[in-house]
Each structure stands twice: as structure tokens, then as C-alpha cells.
């Protein structure tokens, strides 16, 4: 489909709840009834011409990393693992000193969109997690929709910390997508801040818009204008994607004519690989 290396910045994968590997008793409903396991993901990526993806265990499985680390460590040229972490535990924060020794690990995810977010943030700050992540060079993927002041505070308090804004900090389709990404431009001045252009079809009025999804094209242009192509990363959030995966890939590969080839290569995967020092998909 393209000569560029295409990497998907986020796909949830999980297994069914079993007595040997149970989900938490208070688990939320999964995004689909059938577990999305790696063999299915491989087939979908192959069909769309996508080289690889970052895998993340979903919240309904609990804070576990076993599946994604198993897969990423076995095939680092195809998969990387975004891990969950006990961010409230000071001892766990200090263990970040050894994170590079965990095969397949590329980043840590903080989900700040449910529950008592303020309490979670206070505990995370008190544990020294953010300071340790900055000290030891751990990239973070933070989903805190609409909380632009939080992203700004983290960037200013921990200027050496690398933070990716997950799903462009959007949660609903209550306004046009190009308008919804516009507030992120104020964060672009912080060199440690990047953005996942991920899950974007979830925030479209699909009754009014069809492929090639001009709103996605316009939103990506706005993000690239603000952050530069090296800090904007294609992603799908496949398990809840409301459009066919090849259609979304096609939008990024074929329908961003305002980007030159070098910029397109960065958005499709080159920028993500550089941001995370994930060299294996590029033959390094």
C-alpha cells in the first residue's frame, strides 16, 4: 500500500476472563464481547499494510501487562507494549530505574478519565512517579480528555518528561473534530509533548461523513501545524473503531495531500518510532 513504515500507536488486546486469569470483580464492560487477541490483530494489520502496533491491556482486565509484554518481547519488530503501573506506590516508582530491562516495554499508560481523577493524581504525585519517570526516561501515554491544564502543568513541572496525549484528549463527538483538537495547539510549545491522532473516527458524526473522512484530514493538518509531523502519531484504538480499519489507514496514507512525503512518513510511524526509540520495525 505504501513504501512508508506504518505503525499503529494504540491497539487494546485481551483474553477472556477465566478462573486461571480472572478479570477484576468490578470490571467495566469490554469494548466488544469477543476478546481481541493478537492473531486477529496480525491479520488485520497485514491486510491493511501496517507494519506494527503498540499494544495495551484494557482497563477491564485490570492493571496487568503479561499478555502485551509476552507478545512484544517475542516480536519487537512488530509489537511494542504500553504498560500499566502502580503509580501510587513509591517503591513501584523507584523500580522505574530498571524499566529498560523489561523486554518489549515502550511506555506507561495513565488513564485519567474515570473515577476520582484528583485523588489518583494526588497519589501519583506523592509517590514520586512523575519525577521518577522523568529521571529514568520513561515515556508516558496519558489519556485525560479535556484536561489541558493538567498536561500543561506536567510539562512545566517535569520538562524532561515525554508525554503523549492519547486520543487527542477527546472523549465525545459533541463538536466537529477539527474544532475538538484545536485546544491542543497551546501545548505544542512544550518539546516533551506529543499527540496520538488515534481513535479519531470515534469522534465523528458518521451519519453525515463517509470515507475518506475529511474531518480527520483537517484535524491532522491542525495538529501537524502546531506540533510538527514528528510529534503527531497515527493510531486506531482498533477494538472500538466504528469504521473499517483499512478505510482509516487509507485516510492517513492517501488522503493527507497537504503533507510532503517526509511529513507523511513521520505521522504514519517514523515519529512514533523515534519518540519511543523503537527501532526494530525499521530494521535497526
UniProtKB/TrEMBL annotation:
<dbReference type="InterPro" id="IPR006680">
    <property type="entry name" value="Amidohydro-rel"/>
</dbReference>
<feature type="domain" description="Amidohydrolase-related">
    <location>
        <begin position="8"/>
        <end position="270"/>
    </location>
</feature>
<protein>
    <recommendedName>
        <fullName>Amidohydrolase-related domain-containing protein</fullName>
    </recommendedName>
</protein>
<dbReference type="InterPro" id="IPR032466">
    <property type="entry name" value="Metal_Hydrolase"/>
</dbReference>
<dbReference type="Pfam" id="PF04909">
    <property type="entry name" value="Amidohydro_2"/>
</dbReference>
<comment type="similarity">
    <text>Belongs to the metallo-dependent hydrolases superfamily.</text>
</comment>
<dbReference type="InterPro" id="IPR052350">
    <property type="entry name" value="Metallo-dep_Lactonases"/>
</dbReference>
Amino acid at each position: 500500500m505504501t513504501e512508508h513504515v506504518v505503525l499503529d500507536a494504540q491497539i487494546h488486546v485481551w483474553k477472556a476472563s477465566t478462573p486461571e486469569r480472572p478479570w477484576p470483580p468490578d470490571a467495566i464492560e469490554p469494548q466488544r464481547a469477543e476478546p481481541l487477541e493478537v492473531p486477529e490483530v496480525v491479520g488485520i494489520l497485514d491486510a491493511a499494510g501496517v507494519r506494527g502496533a503498540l499494544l495495551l491491556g484494557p482497563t477491564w482486565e485490570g492493571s496487568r501487562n503479561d499478555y502485551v509484554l509476552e507478545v512484544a518481547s517475542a516480536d519487537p519488530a512488530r509489537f511494542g507494549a504500553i504498560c500499566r503501573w502502580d503509580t501510587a506506590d513509591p517503591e513501584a516508582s523507584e523500580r522505574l530505574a530498571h524499566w529498560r530491562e523489561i523486554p518489549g516495554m515502550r511506555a506507561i499508560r495513565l488513564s485519567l478519565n474515570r473515577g476520582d481523577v484528583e485523588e489518583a493524581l494526588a497519589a501519583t504525585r506523592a509517590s514520586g512517579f512523575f519525577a521518577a519517570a522523568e529521571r529514568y526516561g520513561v515515556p508516558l501515554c496519558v489519556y485525560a480528555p479535556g484536561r489541558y491544564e493538567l498536561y500543561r502543568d506536567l510539562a512545566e513541572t517535569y520538562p524532561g518528561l515525554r508525554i503523549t496525549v492519547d486520543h487527542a484528549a477527546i472523549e465525545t463527538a459533541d463538536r466537529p473534530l477539527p474544532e475538538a483538537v484545536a485546544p491542543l495547539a497551546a501545548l505544542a510549545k512544550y518539546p516533551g509533548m506529543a499527540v496520538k491522532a488515534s481513535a479519531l473516527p470515534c469522534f465523528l458524526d458518521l451519519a453525515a461523513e463517509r470515507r475518506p473522512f475529511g474531518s480527520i484530514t483537517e484535524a491532522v493538518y491542525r495538529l501537524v501545524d502546531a506540533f510538527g509531523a514528528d510529534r503527531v502519531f497515527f493510531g486506531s484504538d482498533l477494538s472500538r473503531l466504528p469504521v473499517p480499519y483499512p478505510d482509516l489507514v487509507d485516510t492517513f496514507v492517501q488522503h493527507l495531500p497537504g503533507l510532503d512525503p517526509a511529513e507523511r512518513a513521520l505521522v504514519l510511524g517514523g515519529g512514533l518510532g523515534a519518540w519511543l526509540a523503537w527501532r526494530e520495525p525499521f530494521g535497526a
